[in-house]
């Protein structure tokens, strides 16, 4: 784990422990907050923690990766209820100056294939293939999720063997197809409009997208594991973007 990755893990754990030292990695003069439920700056971060019921927070960071000035983490939270979250931090001159996240309520049970929202592979390999894997996954999201070119779908996967951690979807292309069919019959629409950011380390790639789910403005965070040039595993969180009148800062959910 790199120094910056460890600093992020320690900072997130401080939400649970209340330790002050890890928080010093945040630049007190410049901390741009994109969690719309928190006020801007270090004071906003502190106020959010102060609102937590005493001794209620639990933090278990399962995977953490680094891409240049960015560190992104995948974490299991007890934070105003059980949640799975992705956090992205931007470093500048050795300090954290910006933060994004996407939180979804933890599913009550495993998905149809027995996978949870957080289990699976955790260690990045193939570090020399980072750029190629980012390009592959970025193209997949653009082709399939943004533009609906479903005729290209099978080409991105190694048969029907890929592992799915979305709580509603079973493993493999067959599981994805079945879930989309159920959604269509229920009249539930999912539309990705814009890819906002692609980050990666080795065989792990995180894509941040903006769109709509069930007609509501939504932030999509999708983490993919690539194996031999094909998508092998997927985790995600969806978060509804509240109306601007409810935002506690005006930085927006994205703004990369």
CATH C-level category of the largest domain: Alpha Beta
Number of strands: 10
How many angstroms does the end-to-end distance come to?
Answer: 25 Å
Task: Note the run of SSEs as H and E.
Answer: HEHEEEEHEHEEEE
pLDDT averaged residue by residue:
94
What shape does the CA trace take? globular
What is the strand content?
35-45%
How many individual domains? 2
Count of runs of 4 or more consecutive helical residues: 4
How much helix, percentage-wise, in residues? 10-25%
CATH architecture of the largest domain: Roll
Largest sheet: 5 strands, mixed
Model regions low in confidence, pLDDT < 50 over at least 5 residues: none
The helix-and-strand class reads: alpha+beta
What topology, given as strand order, has the largest sheet?
1-5-4-3-2
What is the radius of gyration computed over CA atoms, rounded to a whole number of angstroms?
18 Å
What would you say this structure looks like, in words?
There is one protein chain. The chain is an alpha+beta fold. It has two domains: 3-106, Roll (Nuclear Transport Factor 2, Chain: A); 127-240, Nuclear Transport Factor 2, Chain: A, CATH 3.10.450. Helices cover 22% and strands 35% of the residues. The protein contains four helices and ten strands, in the order αβαββββαβαββββ. The protein has helices at residues 3-17, 41-50, 130-146, 172-186, and strands spanning 32-33, 58-67, 70-78, 82-92, 95-105, 163-164, 190-201, 204-213, 216-227, 230-240. It has a five-stranded mixed sheet with strand order 1-5-4-3-2, covered by helices on one side. It has a five-stranded mixed sheet with strand order 6-10-9-8-7, with helices on one face. A hairpin with a 3-residue loop joins strand 3 (70-78) and strand 4 (82-92). The model has no long low-confidence stretch (mean pLDDT 94).
């Amino acid at each position: 784990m790199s120094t910056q990755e460890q600093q992020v893990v320690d900072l997130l754990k401080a939400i649970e422990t209340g330790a002050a030292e890890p928080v010093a990695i945040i630049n007190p003069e410049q901390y741009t907050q994109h969690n719309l439920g928190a006020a801007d700056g270090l004071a906003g971060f502190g106020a959010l923690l102060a609102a937590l019921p005493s001794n209620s927070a639990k933090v278990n960071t399962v995977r953490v990766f680094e891409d240049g000035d960015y560190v992104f983490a995948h974490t299991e939270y007890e934070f105003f209820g059980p949640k799975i979250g992705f956090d992205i931090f931007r470093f500048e001159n050795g300090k954290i100056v910006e933060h994004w996240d996407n939180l979804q309520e933890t599913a009550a049970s495993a998905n149809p294939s027995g996978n949870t929202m957080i289990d699976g592979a955790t260690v990045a390999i193939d570090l020399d293939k980072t750029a190629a894997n980012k390009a592959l996954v970025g193209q997949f999201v653009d082709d399939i999720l943004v533009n609906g070119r479903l005729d290209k779908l099978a080409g991105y996967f190694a048969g029907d063997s890929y592992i799915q951690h979305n709580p509603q979807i079973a493993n493999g292309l067959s599981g994805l197809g079945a879930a989309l069919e159920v959604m269509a019959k229920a009249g539930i629409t999912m539309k990705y409009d814009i890819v906002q950011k692609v980050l990666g380390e080795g065989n792990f790639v995180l894509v941040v997208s903006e769109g709509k789910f069930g007609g509501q403005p939504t932030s999509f965070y999708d983490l993919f594991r690539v194996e031999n040039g094909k998508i092998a595993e997927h985790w995600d969180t969806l978060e509804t973007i509240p109306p601007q009148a409810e935002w506690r800062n005006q930085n927006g959910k994205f703004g990369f």
